[in-house]
């Protein structure tokens, strides 16, 4: 099972892609260190999955940079209009 699907990566914002890339690289470095130290790795196929996902993220970022793929639009939250306040100078019945 892949770590992330290509569609999920393409829908992520650029900042989220960068953060995910950093996280994956840290995890890959940690697993490689364990292997080089002679430790047993729970899932040795995880290294291949990490490398593949990192490559997919880098490919999508490069395509967006070259204009081959459109970057997802960042949706800005719009503030709801506040109801108009009644004029406090209205005459009160006396």
Question: Can you summarize this structure?
Answer:
By secondary structure, the chain is mostly helical. The chain is 54% helix and 0% strand. The protein has three helices and no strands.
Describe the structure.
The chain is mainly α. Helix content is 54%, strand content 0%. The chain contains 3 helices and no strands. Helix 2 runs antiparallel to helix 3. The N and C termini lie far apart (76 Å). The model has no long low-confidence stretch (mean pLDDT 85).
Summarize this structure as a short list of keywords or feature phrases.
mainly alpha; elongated; 3 helices
**Structural shape:** elongated
Number of helices in the DSSP assignment: 3
Distance between the termini: 76 Å
Report the radius of gyration as a whole number of Å.
Answer: 25 Å
Secondary-structure element string: HHH
Please describe the biggest sheet, giving its number of strands, its sense, and whether it closes into a barrel.
none
Structural class by sheet pairing and helices: mainly alpha
The number of strands is 0
Low-confidence stretches: none
Could you tell me the mean pLDDT? Answer: 85
Helix fraction? 40-55%
Counting copies of identical and different chains, the oligomeric state is single chain
Question: How do the helices and strands line up, and which of them pair or pack?
Answer:
Elements: H1 6-11, H2 14-36, H3 45-66
Helix pairs in contact: 2-3
């Amino acid at each position: 099972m892949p770590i992330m699907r290509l569609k999920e990566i393409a829908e992520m914002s650029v900042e989220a892609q960068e953060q995910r890339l950093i996280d994956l690289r840290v995890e890959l470095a940690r697993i490689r260190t364990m292997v080089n130290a002679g430790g047993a790795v729970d899932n040795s196929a995880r290294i291949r999955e990490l490398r593949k996902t990192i490559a997919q993220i880098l490919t999508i970022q490069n395509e967006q940079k070259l204009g081959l793929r459109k970057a997802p639009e960042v949706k800005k939250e719009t503030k709801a209009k506040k109801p108009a306040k009644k004029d406090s100078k209205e005459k009160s019945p006396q």
